[in-house]
Amino acid sequence: MTSFLGSNKGLIDFDQKSLAVAAASIAFNPIFWNTVARQEYHNKVLTKLAGGNSLRACYGLAITIFSLGIFRDFLYERALRDQPAHPLLDTAVSTYIAYALMAAGNVLVLSSMWALGLTGTYLGDYFGILMDDIVTGFPFNVTASPMYYGSTMTFLGSALWYGKPAGILLTAEVLIVYLIALQFEDPFTAEIYAKRERQRKSGKKEL
Ligand SMILES: *[C@@H]1O[C@H](CO)[C@@H](O)[C@H](O)[C@H]1NC(C)=O
């Protein structure tokens, strides 16, 4: 008996190693940057590696995270190529939705990077490089996490564009790992900024 999901001619071919590799890469990236950024925050590990220059250290992490993202996208596309397509996803409507998702997702990601700048996008707060003010304009008036939701939309768009159910499964994983990452990142960065606020207030009292 072959299960609906498990058979080779089913929705998803779980026998393909490329699927597991892509899934591992999707999970690895946020774990990597959260671990490294917290090491930087507590022990200044990257700043020490960069000879005491926090800005240079943050740029180094930015390049690393960006490259890991490109590599993950490559593994994702490679995994999809090994997967069966589904006729329901092979329609004109599906393709239009795919284009809309990829366009909207990229708008969210790129406008978020534009609004935050390089250090703001790539965990500068953990290096002590804080934003002057909380960014409230577009795309942050649409969603609090445009980078993560935009990225998820782009993954879903690709899944539909290729017409591959496996892509929808991997997109669900992307969303879940980002939602878990937010549970760690949001309170942590909120505390970094709250700490600055407390320091500013106590600094003013001394004047
Ligand atoms: C977000 O801000 C932009 C301009 O900064 C504006 O055009 C848009 O309507 C706003 N969206 C929402 C949902 O408030």
Shape: elongated
Helix percent reads over 70%
Task: Kindly estimate the percentage of residues that lie in beta strands according to DSSP.
Answer: under 5%
Number of helices: 6
Overall number of structural domains: 1
Q: What kind of assembly state do the chains in view correspond to?
A: single chain
The residue-averaged pLDDT reads: 93
Distance between the termini: 78 Å
Radius of gyration: 20 Å
Give the number of DSSP strands: 0
Provide the low-confidence segments as ranges: none
The computed structural class is: mainly alpha
- Biggest beta-sheet profile: none
Query: What is the N-to-C succession of helices and strands?
Result: HHHHHH
Bound molecules: 2-acetamido-2-deoxy-beta-D-glucopyranose
Outline the structure in words.
There is one protein chain. By secondary structure, this protein is mostly helical. It has one domain (17-202). 72% of the residues lie in helices and 0% in strands. It is built from 6 helices and no strands. The chain has helices at 17-43, 45-49, 54-81, 92-121, 146-162, 165-206. Helix 1 runs antiparallel to helix 3 (54-81), helix 1 packs parallel to helix 6 (165-206) and helix 4 (92-121) runs antiparallel to helix 5. The longest helix is centred in the last third of the chain and has 42 residues, at 165-206. The termini are far apart. 27% of the residues are buried. The mean pLDDT is 93. The chain binds 2-acetamido-2-deoxy-beta-D-glucopyranose (NAG). 2-acetamido-2-deoxy-beta-D-glucopyranose binds next to loops.
